[in-house]
Amino acid sequence: MRIAITAIKEYQFNIPDICKQKAVAKILKVFDRLIVNNQKQIKLLEEAAQRIYKEWFVDLRFPGHENTEIENGMPNTWKTIQAMELCKITIGKTPPRSESYWFTDKGGIPWVSISDMNDAVFLFNTKEQLTGEAIKRNSVKVVPRGTILLSFKLTVGRVAIAEKKMATNEAIAHFYVDDTIREYLFCYLSNFNFDVLGSTSSISKAINSKIVKSMPIVLPDNETLTKFHDKVKSLFLKIENCQKNIYMLSEARDRLLPKLMSGEIEV
């Protein structure tokens, strides 16, 4: 479909007077300010959690390190295992794009693409959803709340935690983890150098699901893992609450704007 430039130039808009525009902007700024404040808190909280992770597991200054023997650069009570030995790992799936009825924008199961995982610790919403029939007929994996998601194709290394039941496309792996290891594995994957796992080119990185499942995971002893969980779980809970606030504020703002502009709600 094409629209002539003359038609675009002649299109008429109903624009509220400048006083109403300023009144609407003043209301929306309250929402924007709260969103920015929550974003700042998330950044500080995540930096705090990552700082503790690096102190304990990169610099090896974890509780009791003074009395722990180091062998080959790692405490002798730790071990390196394959990811699939640590937890169950599955891969997402995309129903046929030519059959658009599998996809919906509301009322379905959130379906994660890599773009949905941009700078989010916890994943609340997605641009697309799958119908229940799409999940069933195409054997799409639905992961539970708390599952760690990892992108491993094209954009490699994005990590997020599912805040609710979700499905993903085939470029995302699902790590089903226990509560006590969730924060550690999130930080570990966030800091992992994925370049060592596969070939790279100027176009993309080549890492497949087999490589993801066999990737090395440095696993500290249970006592250290439990202490780390107890240390940072409150930080992750606060991050989750801040992201929930952002989601609710954004939804409220977007619903409010057309009502303010149309006069349905007076300003």
Residues in β-strands, percent: 15-25%
Biggest sheet overview: 5 strands, mixed
Runs with pLDDT <50, length 5+?
none
Count of extended strands: 15
What does the radius of gyration come to? 23 Å
**Which whole number gives the mean pLDDT?**
90
Widest beta sheet: strand line-up: 4-12-9-10-7
**Helical residue percent band:** 40-55%
Shape: globular
Number of helices: 7
- Could you give the order of the helices and strands? HHEEEHEEEEEHEEEEHEEHEH
Helix/strand/pairing class, anyone? alpha+beta
**Terminal Cα span:** 38 Å
Spell out the blueprint of helices and strands.
Layout: H1 5-10, H2 18-57, E1 70-71, E2 74-75, E3 79-82, H3 83-86, E4 88-91, E5 103-104, E6 109-112, E7 122-123, E8 128-130, H4 132-137, E9 148-151, E10 159-162, E11 167-168, E12 172-176, H5 179-191, E13 199-200, E14 205-206, H6 209-214, E15 216-219, H7 222-262
Parallel strand pairs: 6-11, 7-10
Antiparallel strand pairs: 1-2, 3-15, 4-12, 5-8, 6-8, 9-10, 9-12, 13-14
Characterization of the model:
- This protein has 267 residues and is an alpha+beta fold.
- Helix content is 43%, strand content 17%.
- It has 7 helices and 15 strands.
- The strands form 5 sheets. It has a 5-stranded mixed β-sheet with strand order 4-12-9-10-7.
Q: What characteristics describe this protein?
A:
15 strands; 267 residues; five-stranded mixed beta sheet; four-stranded mixed beta sheet; 43% helix
Task: Please summarize what this structure is.
The protein has helices spanning 5-10, 18-57, 83-86, 132-137, 179-191, 209-214, 222-262, and strands at 70-71, 74-75, 79-82, 88-91, 103-104, 109-112, 122-123, 128-130, 148-151, 159-162, 167-168, 172-176, 199-200, 205-206, 216-219. With 267 residues, it is of the alpha+beta class. The model has no long low-confidence stretch (mean pLDDT 90).
